[in-house]
Design brief:
heterodimer; A: about 170 residues; mainly alpha; Arc Repressor Mutant, subunit A; three-stranded antiparallel beta sheet; 8 helices; elongated; B: about 220 residues; Rossmann fold; six-stranded mixed beta sheet; four-stranded antiparallel beta sheet; 7 helices; 10 strands
Chain lengths: ~170, ~220
């Protein structure tokens, strides 16, 4: 899911070949796990089927023909919606939050308002968990809520930290 | 609306701490104030509580302009209507726990007998049974903060201002302090403004505002 939106975000800036897309993705987002070529082309094919990306040109090359992809207006709308929507706090969320911040900066959108929306969502969930923990009948239930609370709090610390570093990040990303 | 701050500006020398801060607190509401270090959150709390006077803007409490009161009027207002909890309790080190709790009543002119009697009532509520005659130096951090909460609430204030009340505590003691603070404030019908950098602490409040560059953002009201 995140990969599709990341490719859309990269395509929003300029039209690209599949190969460029992979390089660009790996450089910015693939530190932990670079994309495989098969994944890139499968994702692009799906995006084309969904009408979010179209083939702008087919260019002859030394080997097989190369397709140049572009984002469609529907693709921009979809990307925009995804970027502005806060995520539900859950384990393993970091990569999505990170991707959204970088894509927002790359595309000149407000990473700050995304982080604000995300912070509000996290705080709301923490408040609900705190209430559940206080109402918990058994100490065991309270401890489980505590586990979730500490993890969400870690995300929130990252969100605050990222908000404080947006200036530096923005310069680096552009 | 119990307490409202409008367009607050406050500088310390050439450094602006508040630049148009806005905040409203309803009667009995718990509001957490978060924000990066140096964002102005403590200055905001001090202006709301009448400890500092803003350079510009207004603070209205229960229909009165706090920023226009004389020093004497402000200190009377603080004593009669506000309670305070700070990071390190700020208990009087020479006084035993019971007298620390009774202090606001003693300062407002109540008889010693009545004040001490009222302070006794607070010990079981805050898990301080058996500690009445201990000096602050003989208390754990959590016990000291619970004493500070009792002292903040004993005079039945309309508002409690808490500045990093759990900043010096581990998470278990912090949870205990927050639970007692929230329960006691709700039971007394007091509003609470709590400055904290800990999301876990903020999660006890009804809502959270963020202070950034001397202004208040309310992400949850977007």
């Amino acid at each position: 899911m995140t990969i599709s939106y990341t490719l859309l975000g990269l395509l929003e800036k300029e039209t690209r070949h599949g190969y460029d897309l992979k390089q660009s993705y790996d450089r910015r987002f693939g530190a932990a796990r670079p994309l495989r070529f098969g994944q890139v082309y499968r994702t692009l094919a799906q995006l084309v089927r969904d009408g979010l990306v179209s083939v702008a040109a087919i260019e002859p090359g030394a080997g097989p023909e190369r397709k140049r992809y572009e984002i469609t207006p529907e693709g921009v709308t979809d990307l925009e919606r995804w970027l502005s929507e806060p995520e539900n706090p859950k384990p393993g969320l970091q990569t999505v939050l990170f991707t959204k911040v970088v894509l927002a900066l790359l595309s000149g959108r407000s990473a700050e308002s995304f982080l604000d929306a995300q912070r509000a969502k996290h705080l709301a969930v923490m408040r609900e968990l705190t209430r559940q923990r206080r109402d918990a009948a058994a100490a065991q239930d309270a401890l489980l809520a505590d586990y979730q609370l500490f993890h969400i709090e870690a995300d929130l610390r990252w969100i605050d930290h990222a908000a404080g570093r947006l200036g530096t990040l923005a310069e680096e990303v552009r | 609306m119990m307490l409202t701050a409008h367009n607050l500006h406050k500088s310390f020398g050439p450094t602006p701490a508040l630049r148009g801060a806005e905040l409203s607190v309803e009667k009995g509401e718990l509001v957490a104030v978060m924000g990066p270090s140096g964002s102005g959150k403590s200055t905001l709390l001090h202006c709301l509580a009448g400890i500092l006077t803003p350079d510009e803007g207004e603070v209205v409490f229960d229909g009165r302009r706090v920023d226009r009161l004389s020093d004497r009027e402000r200190s009377m207002l603080r004593r009669a209507r506000f309670g305070f909890v700070f990071q390190f309790g700020q208990l009087v080190p020479e006084l035993p726990l019971l007298e620390n709790i009774a202090l606001p009543l003693l300062l407002s002119g109540q008889s010693r007998r009545a004040a001490i009697g009222a302070a006794w009532q607070w010990l079981p509520r805050l898990g301080l049974d058996g500690l009445a005659h201990r000096l602050p130096g003989e208390l754990s951090g959590g016990q000291g903060q619970r004493t500070a909460i009792a002292r903040a609430l004993i005079a039945k204030p309309d508002m409690v201002f808490a500045d990093e009340p759990t900043g010096a505590l581990d998470s278990v003691a912090a949870d205990q302090v927050m639970e007692l603070l929230v329960d006691a404030a709700r039971a007394e019908g007091a509003g609470v403004v709590i400055v904290t950098h800990e999301p876990r602490v903020a999660a006890y409040a009804d809502r959270t505002v963020i202070v950034r560059d001397g202004r208040v953002a309310e992400p949850e009201r977007v």
